[in-house]
Design a protein that fits this description.
Pfam families: GntR
Order of helices and strands: HHHEEHH
Organism: Candidatus Pseudogracilibacillus intestinigallinarum
Low-confidence stretches: none
Largest sheet: 2 strands, antiparallel
Structural class: mainly alpha
Distance between the termini: 30 Å
Keywords: DNA-binding, Transcription, Transcription regulation
CATH topology of the largest domain: Arc Repressor Mutant, subunit A
InterPro entries: Tscrpt_reg_HTH_GntR (IPR000524), WH-like_DNA-bd_sf (IPR036388), WH_DNA-bd_sf (IPR036390)
Number of helices: 5
CATH superfamily of the largest domain: Winged helix-like DNA-binding domain superfamily/Winged helix DNA-binding domain
Strand order of the largest sheet: 1-2
Oligomer: single chain
GO molecular function: DNA binding; DNA-binding transcription factor activity
Strand content: 5-15%
Length: about 120
């Protein structure tokens, strides 16, 4: 896991994203126990309530499931849920603005595809 936190975004969101990244990369496997809030708090030197907030959002999104007295575990659907969510975010934050700017500049779809394929 990454150890650096940035000042630009809420810490609990960063914790949530770090856990999602670990799940996508396979560092935390389907069915495996996620780090505890205390482990995350110690590792990132943050308040356990902050770590818990990020983890609770993952529970609400059905990425993690709580087992009382045992911990939180990665759900069977976690990877699919994360990918679908991030694909939508990618579309909203990158593709739509790209299309809008291309339209303003009269860039055709073919030109845009060519530009994307070229490496600079």
């Amino acid at each position: 896991m990454k150890r650096e936190l940035d000042d630009q975004r809420p810490i609990y969101i960063q914790i949530k994203e770090f856990l999602e990244d670990a799940i996508l990369k396979g560092s935390i496997a389907i069915g495996e126990k996620a780090p505890s809030t205390n482990e995350l708090a110690k590792f990132y030197q943050i308040n356990p309530a902050t770590a818990r907030q990020g983890m609770n959002e993952l529970v609400q999104e059905n990425i993690l499931k709580k087992q009382r007295g045992v911990g939180m575990f990665v759900t069977e659907d976690a990877i699919q849920i994360i990918r679908e969510k991030r694909l939508q975010e990618f579309f909203d934050h990158f593709i739509l603005p790209l299309q809008e700017e291309a339209k303003k500049l009269n860039i055709t779809s073919e030109q845009l595809v060519k530009m994307l394929k070229e490496e600079k």
